[in-house]
Amino acid sequence: MNLALFFDPLPDTLTAAVPAPTTLAAYATRFTETFPDWRNADLALIGLDEWRGSAAGPPNPNRHGANEVRQRFYQLQKGTGTVRFVDLGNLRPGLTLEDTYQRLREIIGALLEENTVPVLLGGSHDLDYGQFLAYESQDRAICFAVVDARPDMAEPGPGTPPEESHLRRLLVHEPNFVFSLAHLGHQQYLTPPEVLVALEKLHFETMSVGELRTDRRLAEPLIRQAEFLSVDIAALRWQDAPGYYPANPFGLGNEDATQLCWYAGHNEQLSSLGLYGYRADLDPHGMAAATLATMLWYFVEGFYHRRPETGFGTFRFLTYTVVLPGNPDKLVFYKSRRADKWWMEVERLGDNSVKRVVPCTYEDYLNASQGDLPQRWIRLQALLG
């Protein structure tokens, strides 16, 4: 597949200067005159400037959000390992918004086939629908996570911007290939109660901004289970990321956002990341661009710290079996000897041939040790059924 047909090269203002030898710019292969060899890359950056799905309309065309973030990102110092990072340039939008979704589907699908992780940067949050569609060809149920100030579950229709209904569209897509969803960072005062009730009935996990900021570590298993992550910059408070509309003084801090990206980078099964919603014309001092560049840096650095966690029940893991008084009569937990990470074995009741080992927390193990079934086990049992 000739991906170059879908992209515009980066402007000279981003690539003309000779990069300092220790910065990421010196290690990234960027699309200027020759399209990068994406098949042999670990990570591929894709700039987006598609806003037809936004309620606020397009930003100032003279300020390309992805390019503003690149300006900051490529000045950062290279981290660990041998970086194989390509920048494919900026995606040319399709004739219609639906065409753009389909372009993303094809491009991301091609990258996934070569085990190259796409990183999508810019555009309205509904573009994660194209990110989602790329997984349909994998012919299996997938897990994904969304970070946003509210679940975008409005009823689609005339007058409803796609960015306000894209999550609903993902969940009702046919064929349905969603196994689980984790929604992180929602703000109670922005979220209709019936939306949270609907997600609970679907046995999906949610974590409010307050819960996440109280203990970020509780978000780690949710991200570790995800195969793709979609982040709306509107989940961050305006003071830390003044680059979205409408402004909101509450939300995640920049430290929270970078920690979530660090978790995502570490997750060896996460195969795509989308950072959406940044409007450069609302960011006069570049604060949000710097925040997004740092989030991207933490994702890349986390990626090069990946260590496959396989072989449950072998010497690589400590195994803990908790005896329970009811049904099930026991739960099996695994803890990595290398890192402070826990997993839980979930069998479908009455059919031990259906089994999954899922990320969990140490608190889940403690609850089981006290005779209480973890909520995570109960949700997974419902999903397996």
TrEMBL record:
GO terms for molecular function: agmatinase activity; metal ion binding. It holds the Pfam family Arginase. It comes from the Bacteria. Keywords: Hydrolase, Metal-binding. GO terms for biological process: putrescine biosynthetic process from arginine, via agmatine. The keyword Metal-binding applies. Belongs to the arginase family. This is Arginase family protein. It comes from Hymenobacter arizonensis.
